[in-house]
Design a protein that fits this description.
The protein is mainly alpha-helical. The chain has 2 domains: about 70 residues, Rna Polymerase Sigma Factor, Chain: A; about 35 residues. Helix 1 packs antiparallel against helix 2 and helix 2 packs across helix 3. The protein is rod-shaped and about 90 Å long. About 10% of the residues are buried.
Length: about 120
């Protein structure tokens, strides 16, 4: 079976199957694209053209399950920008802490070592 023919015959069913699994059009498009990409790579391994449709369905299902497992193992966490201080405040706070530590370290030096450092 030619890849163009496989797309023409099965694309709609494969896309709707992907949409049924993922419930999101963008994810369904990605799953469908993955299935056809794999078909382009491995079409020589499919001896019976009648099995292309089931092969595509299986490929979509396996990829969907892999994505679900990966998202369960590595959940994504979204940070709200409102909960973080603005970038310039974070930098200022860090610099303020560093400045306090530097002044404290300077106080521990003897006078002959401390005098040249502020001049530098």
């Amino acid at each position: 079976m030619d890849l163009t023919e496989a797309v023409r015959e099965h694309y709609r069913r494969i896309y709707y199957f992907s949409l049924h699994l993922s419930q999101k059009p963008a994810d369904a498009a990605d799953l469908t694209q993955h299935a056809y990409e794999m078909l382009a790579r491995k079409k020589h391994t499919i001896s019976d053209p009648a099995k292309v449709k089931s092969w595509l369905h299986s490929t979509v299902y396996r990829k969907f399950i892999d994505q679900k497992r990966r998202s369960a193992r590595f959940p994504s966490v979204e940070l709200e920008e409102d909960s973080l201080p603005p970038e310039h405040e974070r930098e200022y706070k860090d610099n303020k802490i560093d400045a306090k530590a530097a002044l404290k370290a300077l106080e521990q030096l003897s006078d002959d070592l401390r005098a040249p450092l502020p001049l530098f």
